[in-house]
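During the reporting period, our protein records have gained a structure token line. A sample record is set out beneath this paragraph:
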Amino acid sequence: MNQAFEIGPVRVGGGQLFLIAGPCVIESEAHVRKMADAIQRITSDLGVPYIFKASYDKANRTSVKSFRGPGIKEGVAILRRLAESTGLPVLTDVHEPGHCEIVAQGVDVLQIPAFLCRQTDLLVAAAKTGRAINVKKGQFVAPWDMKHAVEKVTESGNDHVFLTERGTTFGYNNLVVDMRSLAIMRKLAPVVFDGTHSVQTPSAANGVSGGQPEFIPLLARAAVAAGVDGVFLEVHDNPAEAKSDGANALHLDKLKGVLEILLAVHGVVAG
């Protein structure tokens, strides 16, 4: 496994389970601040290192009519202000090489979406910002083939890279998680398990994606038992009204209980 590194106060790959969490998309500045404050209180109480996540633009929505977010200029400004006021490291998606330098001015981690994990120009541009890079494994990519994504980042001069598992396409409108992928990819870089996108049913709800959030705790427990470095959860205070991915989001009220169980499992595995 690649050497551990720090993202602000969060050590990635150092043996302590960390959390990436937040709403799928920036719905408003007030909402992301509300979510960041609520999640930070929970993680502080439990001693879980925490990176806030929200997207300024969801460029890969199922329908052209779907809400995408405030856009790069306003979104990055919101994320920068949130980072400054809370002290939290912040992660967001990038979809185009030309966006990377702009986004890097406001966040600590650039995330490569799963559908774009093979896009060389995007990976190289993200790497050259010097920010940490989270590459989500494509639903269509074998875990051992993620070595190429890692190499595109490291050979661009950036060794602060980690990988996230978010499920593999299983027929139409469904995903399945192969827990072997976690161990395979962990030989390449630190690994995070995405417990919310893994229960997504892509494009299965009449122009939007559905989901089975009741299985989030089950899969997250299994992933932590398999030995991941971190867990990624999209969390919302009202998933039924969320503007993106509400069908597979974890309700804020359930976050503390889920984390307590994951910490217990991690403690047993760590020995």
